[in-house]
Design goal:
The complex is a heterodimer of chains A (about 400) and B (about 280). Chain A has about 400 residues and is α+β, with helices and mostly antiparallel strands. Chain A has 16 helices and 10 strands. Chain A has helices at about 5-15, 60, 70-75, 80-95, 105-130, 135-155, 175-200, 205-210, 220-225, 230-235, 265-285, 340-345, 350, 360-365, 370-375, 390-405; strands spanning about 20, 35-40, 45-50, 165, 170, 305-315, 320-325, 335-340, 380, 385. In chain A, helix 5 runs antiparallel to helix 11 (about 265-285) and helix 6 (about 135-155) runs antiparallel to helix 7. The chains are: A alpha+beta (about 400), B mainly alpha (about 280). The interface of A and B includes residues 41, 133, 136, 139 and 358 of A.
């Protein structure tokens, strides 16, 4: 963040043209993204991305709680893809413990992750409709999203935070009734997905707002190592679910890939993934064996052998990476999570170059940024990174409050 | 005199009701419950009770343009033919009507420019571009029925002109939405792109002037449309039925269309201009 006076801003403006500040509070971008946009008329000349409004220090908090309590924390990293975070975390700790969860646990995890992908993609699609000024699309898709949320609530008891994963398996299993309802709902979702695809492909106004806007070429996608639907819409067939973790090896599917790389391609990839996820959730849920265990009981205090594990799973937004290091106690020494948005935000500035200001909200949201998952902080003083202690931090904030008075 | 005052206030109240009806119908189309129909009256009362603040960088016109916008559009109410006649009528009032509505929407864009906010300035430039696009079809739409009856007085012509001149009717109908900056033409006041465009720095009474001058403009244009193109109303009920149909169709358009980008909008309107002029040529020749 820059804190220059108005004088300097004015000088820069003369040099660069019109400057518009987008965010961190903005009606269209719910996430606190801060963009300084330099305009020539209606065209964007250059955009500057600033982050740092939503750092919560979760990675540090991981180092102060035991392995069980950290599941709760991992769930709260993201407000949408909460289930995939706990899945990745639990898989990582299970690797450290050398525990293999029962097959049923993998099935429940897969089903939850896929239902989560459906509701995340639907949420995104609705927001996209809102960004291009079509409120009806937003309202209708969010209404359909309730179908999935209801099933999630039936399975786990929660709508967004499921608290279903635990070390050694899942806390709840599936029942015959739930599987029947899941099959019905996923069928309905597939129908709706084909309707959405028709909507974005056939509606001329919607299509024109998205076609050839915010194009990401395949070579740029590979160079910047973007992940998830953004990469798949630019022709990179990269989907970690094909590695077959949890219960993904129990079903066959191919990553959905398009080559255009514009917003329309990203929308279609996500819409087709809604249908694909519905199919995966259905096939996998049918293989659930009722009466068998869905959880391997572990002691209430676990102390993994010293060592480290890495886990990669496919979150709705792309690759999610967890690194967990143990020092033999019941508290992890280090937990690092790299969220997909961090990989994707790198291309944002180049995507905005030369586009209309009118397309900015749609381009930013087409990456599906989740800023609160992404923010990390490192204090650098005199070119060297250093650690700030807790008392120092509270001292700083107290001084700031005093200044404000 | 008392009649004129009551008429102007009545049309203003009608504009509030129009907004309420549109919001409620659009909400039902979107599977929402929506606000009650009388919500705009509550909003107006709240806005009028608010303190008036001006940003430090605002130009002197900041507080003037919103008032001018509402005042000019309320003046046009006296020129519009209603089922029970019109209060003021003279040779050439059709041209006065066109000028006053242009002044009313222009004043809003100037309000955006005067607010000293870069987003307001962008709203200004977009608004001017949009005005250039829709002013020609608007003039054609208003003048055509007047010319076909051989005068320059705004008065309902004989017969239903929408059948003979469908393009001019369509042009005036779309311009009615564009003049009120309603979806899909909410380009100068785009909420997602410009944080509200020209009204970004406004609040309180001035915001009320801006907001409701748009809806009075829509209502006046729709009244004109129903009287000039859909045949003269025999009584008030026919008039209300025609208005209800027009409001329903415009709400439907608002619900199913995405916002146009300014370049797409100019392209669409340039086609509309050609079609409208085609109808005008047929009417004159």
């Amino acid at each position: 963040m820059s804190h220059e006076g108005p004088e300097k801003h004015r000088k820069e403006e003369e040099k660069e043209g019109h400057e518009v500040v987008v965010g961190p509070q903005h009606p269209a971008l719910v996430e606190p993204v801060h963009l300084r946009v330099f305009l020539k008329g209606e065209k964007i000349e250059r955009a500057e991305l600033n982050l740092g409004y939503l750092h919560r220090g979760i990675e540090l908090s991981f180092q102060g709680r035991d392995y069980y309590k950290n599941i709760y924390l991992a769930e709260r990293i993201c407000g949408i893809c909460s289930g995939v975070h706990t899945t990745a975390y639990c898989m990582g700790v299970e690797k450290l413990l050398g525990v293999e969860p029962p097959e049923n646990a993998g099935i429940v995890r897969t089903v939850m992750c896929e239902l989560e992908r459906i509701h995340s993609h639907m949420l995104w699609l609705g927001v996209l409709g809102y960004e291009i000024g079509l409120d009806t699309m937003f309202q209708v898709i969010w209404r359909d999203r309730e179908l999935v949320l209801d099933v999630i609530e039936k399975i786990s008891g929660g709508r967004i935070h499921y608290a279903i994963n635990t070390l050694g398996g899942t806390r709840r299993g599936l029942s015959r009734d739930i599987i029947k309802e899941l099959v019905d709902v996923t069928r309905k979702i597939e129908e709706r997905a084909s309707f959405y695809e028709k909507l974005v492909e056939k509606d001329r106004l919607v299509r024109e707002r998205m076609e050839n806007v915010g194009v990401l070429e395949r070579k740029d996608a590979i160079k910047n190592s973007v992940v998830g639907p953004v990469a798949r819409a630019s022709g990179v067939a990269f989907d970690l679910r094909t590695t077959g973790y949890a219960a993904y090896h129990k079903t066959h599917f191919k990553p959905i890939v398009l080559y255009e790389g514009d917003i329309l391609a990203r929308a279609i990839v996500r819409i087709r993934e809604i249908a694909q996820s519905a199919r995966i959730a259905r096939t996998v849920a049918r293989q659930y064996e009722e009466g068998k265990e869905h959880r391997q009981k572990l002691p209430p205090i676990v102390r993994p052998e010293p060592g480290a594990s890495t886990t990669r799973v496919e979150a709705p937004r792309g690759e999610l990476f967890y690194y967990i290091r143990s020092n033999g106690t019941n508290i992890p020494e280090r937990v690092k999570s790299r969220t997909p948005t961090l990989a994707n935000l790198g291309v944002l500035e180049s995507l905005l170059d030369g586009e209309h200001l009118a397309d900015l909200p749609a381009i930013v949201s087409s990456l599906d940024p989740c800023v609160c998952c992404t923010e990390r902080v490192q204090v650098v003083k005199d070119g060297k990174p250093r650690t700030v202690s807790k008392s120092e931090l509270s001292m700083l904030s107290r001084n700031r409050t005093r200044e404000r008075k | 005199m008392a009649y004129q005052v009551v008429l102007v206030l009545g049309v203003f109240a009608g504009a509030l009701l129009l907004q309420g009806v549109m919001r409620k119908t659009a909400a039902r189309m979107q599977n929402r419950i929506g606000p009650p129909v009388y919500q705009p009256f509550i909003d107006l009362a709240k806005l009028l009770a608010k303190e008036n603040l001006a940003p430090r960088d605002a130009c002197p016109g900041y507080s003037f343009w919103p008032v001018l916008s509402l005042a000019t559009i309320l003046a046009t109410v006296l020129l519009v033919p209603l089922p029970w006649g019109k209060p003021i009528s003279f040779e050439g009032d059709a041209f006065l009507f066109v000028y006053l509505t242009l002044l009313s929407s222009g004043a809003l864009f100037l309000a955006g420019a005067a607010s000293g906010n870069p987003l307001g300035a962008l709203g200004f430039s977009r608004g001017i571009a949009q005005t250039f696009a829709y002013e020609a079809p608007f003039v054609v739409g208003v003048i055509l029925p007047v010319l076909s009856s051989g005068t320059t007085i705004l008065a309902p012509p004989e017969g239903v002109l929408a059948i003979y001149y469908p393009f001019a009717f369509l042009a005036l109908f779309l311009v009615a939405l564009a003049k009120a900056d309603l979806p899909p033409f909410h380009v100068p006041n785009a909420h997602q792109e410009l944080v509200g465009g020209y009204n970004v720095e406004y609040g309180g009474t001035r915001l009320a002037y801006i907001e409701y001058s748009r809806y009075v403009r829509l209502l006046v244009t729709l009244i004109l449309l129903s009287e000039l193109y859909l045949g003269a109303s025999v009584n008030v009920w026919v008039f209300l039925a025609k208005m209800a149909a027009l409001v329903l169709v415009s709400t439907l358009l608002r619900a199913i269309l995405a916002r146009m980008r300014i370049d797409q909008l100019l392209k669409a309107f340039s086609i509309l201009v050609l079609l409208a002029f085609f109808d005008l040529a047929r009417a004159v020749l």
